[in-house]
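#onboarding

Welcome to the new folks! Below is a worked example of what a typical request in this channel looks like: someone posts a single protein sequence, and someone else replies with the predicted structure as tokens. Don't worry about understanding the tokens yet, we'll cover that in week two.

Example request:
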Amino acid sequence: MAAAREEFADLIVSLRVENAALTSALAAARLEIVELQAKVGKNSSNSSKPPSTDMGRSRPSKPKRGKRRKRGGQPGHVGRFAAAPEHVDHVQPHRPVQCEDCQASLSRGKATGGVANHFVYELPEIRPVVTNHQCLDVQCPDCGLVNSAQLPPGVSTGHYGPSVQAMTGLLRGELKQSVRQTNAVMTEVFHVPMSTGMVAKTQDQVSQALARPFEEALEHAQQSAVAHADETGWRENKKKAWLWVCVTALVTVFLVRAGRGKRAAKELLGEGFRGILITDRWAAYNWVDTVRRQLCWSHLKRDFTSFLDYGPEAKRLGEKLLAERRKLFRLWHRVRDGTMTRAELQLTTRPVRRRILSLLDEGKHLSSKKVSGMCREMLKLKGALFTFVDVEGVEPTNNTAERAVRFPVLMRKMSFGSDTSKGSRFIERFLTARATLRAQKRDLYSYLKEACVARLNGTAAPSLLPERARVARDLPTAA
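Example response:
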């Protein structure tokens, strides 16, 4: 009887141990299911995935606005086709033939001065201006040596002048045309014979013309007080690469590098970068002190939104963090709109900042490894969460840099990257010139042509910096 009781007690103990193990396994399995469901549910609103990957996801409908204006030109609209008088080549007046009322002839009628202008644009047949530079052989009357003339300075040693080079660069870069498409446009539309090999060679000539302005812009960006930085995928010679961007008040600079690490980030920003850097949480930027950084709150919002999919505890945490973020941005918008001073912002955001840090600290201890890990990483960078509150001129988001990479992303999807390192140099130099000039409202084609002329003449290429920045740079430093 005693042996039976002892055997029964052992059975109970073993069942309890087995039950505890099964309970633990079930909890782990449930947690894993939550993690997997959250992973499957990732989209552009709760992760860094692009909106194009949101297949089958219905977007929330926007609330309807009040009375909307009709499509098309509005009352008083002059029309985009109106041409300046100096741009009109021909004027062709037209008189009505007979009166609409009594059908009388209007041949002797007097014009009242009323005119309805209708502009019609036509393209002339495009023919290049071809100059045959004849280098003559001349015999010396004294010694009889036959001397051959050399091309004078300012004449291209190749077959294409600066305007053709600039147009080739524009087609390849701004219009995102392939080598074969550029070859077709130059040959069939502009009647400039250009093989695919010559397209690549001419593109490289444009790249060389942009080399010094690019270096100057990069140096300026590395000395800027505030910079936005980001990176996106690229390809070089069919291998994975990265396109980096740095956006400042005056210039936007691109780099193509094989890696996405700290080394490439330092090449972009400079080893001695001392400005304030606005980025996402990518670890390549962690060499910059957190007191000189601002984390992008658009990315943080997506991170907080992702917490909602990791179980009840994480959902409550995510909802609280999103609510505090809304309070923070309502106050920030008042400063941006001029209805609140920065001193008032710093004072009124103190409790919000404390609650956000407290919630992140609470999140470190949640059962979800994903959520707790993200909270720990954010707390490591807590010095970079609220820089925009304390420092004038710092934005709370990195939208500026993200907008800058949209055009290159479209270019990558059409061209699949660059085939050689020379192609990558053209990409980073052209994109730098394009983005910088567009921000300054300067003409890209004219600039490319001026840069190619400067390369041909051996003179300094035009700067990408605006005049005021060049003047400030060249002023002697006060002792």
